[in-house]
Amino acid sequence: MWKLARRHFWLRGSSLSMSLICGTALAQQPYGLDSREPIGPFLNNVMPSTAGAFEFPASLSATGAFSDVRNLTPATGVIPFTVNSPLWSDGAVKSRWIAVPNDGPPYTADEQIRFAPVGEWAFPNGTVFIKHFELTTNELTGERKRLETRLLVRDTSGAVYGITYKWRSDNSDADLLPGELDEQIAITTTSGQTRIQTYTYPSRSDCLFCHNQPAKYVLGVKTHQLNGDFTYPSTGRTDNQLRNFAHLGLLNPTPSEANIATYLRSVAVTNPTATIQHRMRSWIDANCSDCHRPGGFGPGYDARFYTPLNKQNLINTYVKFRDVAGSPLYQRDNSLGPLKMPPVAKNVVHEAAMAVLRQWIASPLEMLSVYLTQDTEHIAVRFNSDVNPITAAHASNYSLDQGAIVSKARLSQEPDTVILTVSPLKEGQAYALTTSGVQDTAPSANTIWPSSRLQFTAQFIPDLNASRLANASGRVRVGTGDKVAVEGFIVRGAPTKRVMIRAVGPSLGPNGISAALADPVLELHDRTGAIIAANDNWADNANQQEIIDTGLAPQSANESTILMKLPCDQDGVPYTAVLRGANNTTGVALLEIYDLDRGLGPTVLNTSTRGWAGSGDDVLIGGVIVGQQNSTTNLRVVVRAIGPSLTAYGIADPLQDPTLAVYDGNGNRIAANDNWKDTQETELTARRMQPSYDTESALVRTLPPGNYTIIVSGKNDASGVGLVEVYAVN
Fold first, then answer.
1. Does residue 137 sit in the same domain as residue 283?
2. Domain tally for the chain?
């Protein structure tokens, strides 16, 4: 979508140049078809001019639609085409043809399609649309079964009728179906298993349920659906379908080739290069707009692709921000029950489309903060991902309340931050910034939720030299039961803390760690113990691009990540991350927590890692990073190693006498303790942070900004479950 937006931006800046370039480039290309052959109405009057005028042909071959029915060779005058965003038909693969009656050039208006750049086309009476359906029955070999071929006929009243021909098992011909039929079809899956799929052949009344009068009867043949390339089998040439239709004299008025690039273009929901929003709106148009449109059978919203999004009544009604359960569009399209949509001939959920719809609902791109920069006439808007520079630089994508005006937008040196030039703001006053249309840089880009709003106080960014716990990690041998890895942390401040939690296993192997956990699985629990997030493979996250843009995405696809904003308050809110091996596998893993707020907002007050403490490579290792960006101040911390106290929490095999040692980033040991009372008993007691058992370890230390490693092991190489904790106390 960003490429399309860039093209439109260029067009606005140099419309004459763009038209000349497009026109020259297109004119130099051969057309997909050279000419249009004559054909009589109603496929040479073989089909009735109205339903019931006489009997329908009993077989597909008798309709005259194909000169060679076995090989699906279309009759003379029948033109193949495709659509950009096909209707979901339970996984069936479809081919399409159109026969527009004519007796050769010059063409009169009743031998041409009434063309409209936006909206529905009108077709001459006697036009026949042909659609052929096949289903892949072996997902290993790609073998297909011919199912049906449908004819939709524009009758003499301007309405339509539809009939279906079901293919014989030997593919010699297809026979007219009198009504609806369900067929059970065996399908070999990619795993070699067999599943049975019900396929529904529609009745003639079912055809008219979708091909209805409010939709102007014909659904897929329109500008945004045909504005795309198609390779014509008879010539082997690839051409834009609108360009080829115009060349053949099919369209009246004939569109200029130079204008084709400016017309709307829908895309397949499976197109990995189009934006998520573009893919989903195209799919909604193809699957829902026959009923969901003004005057249609499905009131509530307007599904038509060419209706602007802000006028469709979709957002926050049928599709709700980050609320799959509360989004009726998803709940009905993802259903096969009584409320399923579409309501006819649907026995399989379109999983690929539902995944895109979930991604759209998740809408991971959002604004994080707004601060004054340079002066009161510029604000820095930080997003949670790198933003597409084209969409980010449109001032029209932003608006301020209280009469303030956004006059200019540009990307800053930080790829996630946009600088807006605004009318002077009053320092200390509260404002709200509303944003739409901005996209991230994912291959299939996420667009910020329409009219996203962020309230802020007009102030300059505060001093960031204060130190804090920027990262905490624990390397442990992950077992099962009580021996899973557990990392706890407390966040303090308001209103939310943005953190990333990683579970790393396979990546440890190249770093000399033997028996690394092959497939770590991550859970995040709130203070009640409820699971608020979970992940197995990090790229499955809806905010995958946000994870990538942190520069901290795991190296292995099997590793896990949770990135989210966590509610917090001034008293501190605890959270617990649990790391297990998939299917109860075991091995060495690294559990990490990152503060992503760049020194702003709430802080991570405490981190702790619980895991198995053995000897050698199996000691319990904790790590912390003190400082944030340009911080220069030191941080006073309490470090503890807990063992016997864990018995009170149901741990059956605690480390009886833990020892701890702290190392700086150069590997120098800077502090150590065996029994906490031996060194800093007075300060630990005064801070009420003394361990419960004398054999547990603790120390207090002032740490300059940097990286630190904490090693917990059992005295005399003893082993057991231990807990290493770090508290920021200043």
1. no
2. 4
pLDDT value for 22: 42
Residue 417 sits in a domain of what CATH number? 2.60.40.1220
Q: What is the spatial distance between Cα 704 and Cα 725, in angstroms, rounded to a whole number?
A: 18
Residue 269 lies in a domain: no
Nearest to 674 by CA among 695, 700, 655: 695
Does 291 map to a domain? yes
Phi, psi at 678, each rounded to 5°: -70, -20
Q: In the predicted model, what is the mean pLDDT of residues 50-56? A: 96
Q: Which residues contact 520 (CB under 8 A, 6 or more apart)?
A: 478, 503, 504, 505, 558, 559, 560, 579, 580, 581, 582, 589
- Shared-domain flag, residues 484 and 560: yes
Q: How many residues does the chain have?
A: 730
Q: Which of 336, 362, 388 is the last residue of a domain?
A: 362
Say if residue 410 is in the same domain as residue 491: no
Average pLDDT, the chain: 93
Indicate if 330 and 289 belong to the same structural domain.
yes
Domain that holds residue 100: 31-183+201-262
Res. 534: pLDDT tops 50: yes
Give the alpha-carbon dihedral of 171, 173, 179, 184, to 10 degrees: -10
Q: Evaluate whether residue 626 is within a structural domain.
A: yes
- The DSSP code sequence of 163-226 is EEEEEPTTSS-EEE-SS-EEEEEEEE-TTS-EEEEEEEEPPHHHHHHHS-TTTTS--S-BHHHH
Both 322 and 397 in a single domain? no
- In this structure, the answer to whether residues 357 and 404 fall within a common structural domain is no
Q: Which amino acid is at 377?
A: E
Q: Please check whether residues 44 and 174 belong to one and the same domain.
A: yes
354 and 373 part of one domain: no
Q: Residue 426 corresponds to which tokens in the numbers above?
A: 């009053």
Q: What is the CATH number of the domain that holds 504?
A: 2.60.120.380
Q: What is the pLDDT of residue 631?
A: 65
Partnered with residue 474 across adjacent β-strands are 591, 622
CA–CA separation, 324 and 156 (whole Å): 46
Q: How far apart are CA 338 and CA 340, in angstroms?
A: 6
**Dist CA 690 CA 694 (whole Å):** 9
Is the preceding omega at residue 495 within 30 degrees of 0, hence cis? yes
Task: Give, as one character, the DSSP assignment of residue 547.
Answer: H
In the chain, the N- to C-terminal Cα span, in Å, equals 49
Amino acid of residue 629: Q
Note the pTM of the prediction, 2 decimals: 0.89
Report residue 499 CA to chain centroid gap. Answer: 21
Residue 151 φ/ψ, nearest 5 degrees: -120, 130
| Phi, psi of 691, deg, nearest 5 | -65, 165
With 0-12 / 13-18 / 19 or more C-beta atoms within 10 angstroms meaning exposed / middle / buried, residue 112 is buried
Annotate 68-101 with DSSP letters as a single string.
ETTTTEEPTT-EEE--SSPPP-TT-EEEEEEE--
> What tokens were used for 479?
């077992």
Confidence at residue 599, expressed as pLDDT on a 0 to 100 scale: 84
β-strand pairing of 113-114 with 251-252:
parallel
Would you say residue 23 has pLDDT above 90?
A: no
Tell me the C-alpha distance between 597 and 590, whole Å: 22
- The domain boundary residue, chosen from 434, 457, 480: 457
Q: Cα dist. 548→79, 384, 385, 441 in Å? A: 46, 11, 9, 10
| Mean pLDDT value across residues 151-163 | 97
Q: What region, left, alpha or beta, does residue 374 occupy, with left being phi > 0 and alpha being psi -120 to 50 degrees?
A: left
Rounded CA-CA distance 305/547 in Å is 31
Q: What is the pLDDT of residue 6?
A: 33
What does the alpha-carbon distance between residue 142 and residue 483 come to, in Å, rounded to a whole number? 46
Specify if 582 maps to a domain. Answer: yes
Query: Cα–Cα distance between 351 and 221 in angstroms, integer?
Result: 25
Distance CA 126, CA 50 (A): 9
